[in-house]
């Protein structure tokens, strides 16, 4: 038995870690997102009293440090108290280190710290904050267990955490931090494709994306100790599943201006701009990020930078960034993807010998639980040479360089000997370029051509084309056509990005109701 991929991906983020690693258009939410984030200063935190269900001053300061990815500082503040909030932050320091570094050597100590914190919390009087801390720590434990391959234990911990969150909401319905976590759980579980519903039903875990969004909106709109986490989660979900790109970009831009010493905000700003295909802006976040001995070494930042430099054709710089990632990173995920990107940098740069060495590294084995690593492994397994023009065009499109991509695609000439994969990829890449340029009629034309030519071919081009056509129809108010395209996206068999494509299509279908 294994945890469904979409839940697994969400659990790698967890609740705090979703903010570490992951809006309604209403006036209320827009106002909430436009309010300045008030950073807690060390001197004033000691003077502000805390209510019975609020973080103590020291716990509040610890939380601010954890969000900056400075867990050592956070631990020092958390150790000054023994209340529920302090225990949550003390566990959060170890969990943050585990999630960001992905170091398996930290796993056992992190699990032991979680068990110890839960035991100490059980000895404290019941309160909304105590019960919230218990559920958060159990959710962190589920994330850690799944992240490091202990999926049965992780599934059981997830069930315990979710049941605890539901009980907390019934007992403390006005406690906003619980609404944040309940909303996250409901949305992640509700977005799981239908093929995995049996697993969630077996665990007794109901999900509902719309209810989850509403709880997150409520937690994002009203002040509480964890409001910024709710805002971030809501913005990232809205971007990932609903195309609310500018909302997330604006939020992260404001947060990084207000807290330039916050590494988490720099990371998320870089990630959001990368998804928006704004390469220069994403690299700006990377180059201006805060550094120093108190920050965790966030190696994944180098991997993202390597992608961005690859989009720009800066092959030597991309290679250097990925080598830095591989040397600093302690986890098992994204290693194949890094070697694949190194292959591309050498291959496109004309160094065939080095490219072949990188291809051999992909083939050596390793984890393939994330889609990027599965794509890299399929490249090796298929033994089908890449087309230089299509590959370069894909990178240009990912970087937001749409006109150069169309020029590159103009050099592609299909013949009778051209593999089916390449003949399907060409119209898909044209559609993506036209879509990026806002030439929607041309995008629809080429998405349609890709779907027609694909049949049941096991590639992601047609499923993604159907998904994008669904979005275009949805934006045009054509609900029936949008529904048909989202259902078509779900209908395709196994392909490289089926997990994420199916999850997005399912969420989109739910939003049409």
UniProtKB/TrEMBL annotation:
Keywords of this entry: Signal
Signal peptide: 1-31
One Pfam family cited in the UniProt record for this chain: TPR_8
Record has Signal as a keyword: yes
Protein name listed in UniProt: DUF3808 domain-containing protein
């Amino acid at each position: 038995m294994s945890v469904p991929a979409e839940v697994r991906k969400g659990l790698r983020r967890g609740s705090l870690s979703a903010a570490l690693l992951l809006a309604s258009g209403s006036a209320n939410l827009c106002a909430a997102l436009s309010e300045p984030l008030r950073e807690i200063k060390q001197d004033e935190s000691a003077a502000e009293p805390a209510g019975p269900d609020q973080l103590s001053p020291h716990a509040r300061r610890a939380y601010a440090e954890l969000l900056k990815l400075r867990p050592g500082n956070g631990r020092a503040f958390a150790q000054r108290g023994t209340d529920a909030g302090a225990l949550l932050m003390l566990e959060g320091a170890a969990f943050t280190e585990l999630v960001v570094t992905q170091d398996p050597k930290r796993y056992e100590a992190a699990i032991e710290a979680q068990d110890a914190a839960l035991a100490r919390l059980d000895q404290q009087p019941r309160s909304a904050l105590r019960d919230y801390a218990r559920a958060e720590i159990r959710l962190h434990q589920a994330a850690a267990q799944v992240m490091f391959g202990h999926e049965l234990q992780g599934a059981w911990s997830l069930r315990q955490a979710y049941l605890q969150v539901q009980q907390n909401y019934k007992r403390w319905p006005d406690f906003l931090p619980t609404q944040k976590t309940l909303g996250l759980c409901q949305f992640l579980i509700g977005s799981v494709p239908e093929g995995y519903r049996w697993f969630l039903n077996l665990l007794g875990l109901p999900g509902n994306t719309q209810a989850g969004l509403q709880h997150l909106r409520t937690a994002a709109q009203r002040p509480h100790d964890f409001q910024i986490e709710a805002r971030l989660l809501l913005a990232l979900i809205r971007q990932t599943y609903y195309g609310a790109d500018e909302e997330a970009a604006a939020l992260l831009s404001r947060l990084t201006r207000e807290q330039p010493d916050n590494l988490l905000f720099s990371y998320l700003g870089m990630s959001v701009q990368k998804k928006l295909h704004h390469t220069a802006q994403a690299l700006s976040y990377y180059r201006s990020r805060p550094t120093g001995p108190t920050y965790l070494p966030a190696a994944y930042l180098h991997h993202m930078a390597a992608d961005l430099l690859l989009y720009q054709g800066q092959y030597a710089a991309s290679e250097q960034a990925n080598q830095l990632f591989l040397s600093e990173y302690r986890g098992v995920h994204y290693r194949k993807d890094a070697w694949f990107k190194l292959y591309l940098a050498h291959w496109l740069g004309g160094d065939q010998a080095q490219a072949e060495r990188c291809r051999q590294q992909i083939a050596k084995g390793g984890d393939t639980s994330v889609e990027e690593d599965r794509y890299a492994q399929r490249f090796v397994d298929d033994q089908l040479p890449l087309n230089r023009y299509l590959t370069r065009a894909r990178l240009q499109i990912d970087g937001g360089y749409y006109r150069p991509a169309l020029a590159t695609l103009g050099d592609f000439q299909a013949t009778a000997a051209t593999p089916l994969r390449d003949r399907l990829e060409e119209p898909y890449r044209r559609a993506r370029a036209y879509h990026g340029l806002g030439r929607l009629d041309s995008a629809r034309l080429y998405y349609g051509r890709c779907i027609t030519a694909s049949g049941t071919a096991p590639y992601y081009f047609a499923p993604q084309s159907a998904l994008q056509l669904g979005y275009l129809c949805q934006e045009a108010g054509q609900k029936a056509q949008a529904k048909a395209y989202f259902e078509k996206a779900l209908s395709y068999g196994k392909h490289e990005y089926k997990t994420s494509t199916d999850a997005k299509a399912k969420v989109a279908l739910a939003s049409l109701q």
